[in-house]
């Protein structure tokens, strides 16, 4: 048996535009300089309060970051409706997930910096909720790259980390996988560069979702 743990933003769905617009409105509300799109992409994958602190050059979360996090959360669904933005799947993701869910020797889960509500919305929108049997979010665990998301998913499913593969687009995903003792596959269609993924521990790079399948053969 193997356990496949997928990151969400930048790996399964393309949510950068939605995240950036919500972040832009949040920074504007608090009178902060508008972030660049590149700045937003660089923090996708972290828990939200840590991400906001990092975007302002702070190594630790302060009260303003907590206040901005609460405002961001209150805005997210509004911005999603304003943009009529449904966080689309990257090309090939649905077909890859459909093939993996047909396997009797494989369990599928999610490890994400999203809130539990945000992950559930993505899963329901794309009909994945019945395929992902375990998940850990920013509401459940410390932020990536802490290994807790992976280790807790392993504990819940009775799997060993050595039989677990983390698939993600961020350096934090690679670092988390390595810290947990799991294998790490970086995806080239997300928000970090291939060089960054390799430098942070990726055991392999997938340039298309169908390339992920061979790691479960």
From TrEMBL:
Gene3D superfamilies assigned: HAD superfamily/HAD-like, Putative phosphatase, domain 2
The organism of origin for this protein: Rhizobium aouanii
Keyword field contains tRNA processing: no
One Pfam family in the UniProt entry: HAD_2
Biological classification of the source: Bacteria, Pseudomonadati, Pseudomonadota, Alphaproteobacteria, Hyphomicrobiales
Xref: InterPro entries: HAD-like_hydrolase_sf, HAD-like_sf, HAD-SF_hydro_IA, HAD_2, HAD_sf, PGP-like_dom2
Entries under NCBIfam families matching the protein: HAD-SF-IA-v1 (TIGR01549)
Name recorded for this polypeptide: HAD-IA family hydrolase
Keywords attached to this entry: Hydrolase
Keyword field contains Hydrolase: yes
Entry GO MF terms: hydrolase activity
């Amino acid at each position: 048996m193997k356990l496949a743990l997928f990151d969400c933003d930048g790996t399964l769905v393309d949510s950068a535009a939605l995240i950036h617009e919500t972040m832009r409105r949040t920074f504007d509300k608090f009178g902060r300089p508008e972030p660049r799109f590149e700045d937003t992409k660089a923090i996708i994958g972290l828990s939200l309060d840590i991400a906001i602190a990092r975007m302002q050059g702070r190594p630790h979360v302060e009260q303003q970051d907590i206040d901005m996090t609460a405002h961001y959360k209150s805005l997210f669904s509004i911005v999603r409706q304003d943009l009529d933005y449904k966080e689309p799947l990257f090309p090939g993701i649905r077909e890859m997930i459909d093939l993996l869910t047909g396997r009797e020797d494989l369990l599928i889960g999610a490890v994400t910096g999203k809130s539990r509500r945000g992950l559930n919305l993505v899963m329901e929108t794309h009909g994945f909720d019945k395929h992902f049997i375990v998940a850990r979010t920013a509401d459940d665990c410390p932020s990536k790259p802490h290994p807790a998301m992976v280790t807790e998913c392993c504990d819940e499913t009775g799997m060993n980390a050595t039989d677990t593969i983390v698939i993600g687009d961020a350096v934090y995903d690679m670092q988390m996988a390595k810290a947990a003792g799991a294998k790490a596959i970086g995806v080239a269609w997300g928000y970090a560069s291939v060089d960054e993924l390799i430098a942070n521990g990726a055991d392999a790079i997938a340039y298309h979702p169908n390339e992920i399948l061979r790691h479960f053969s």
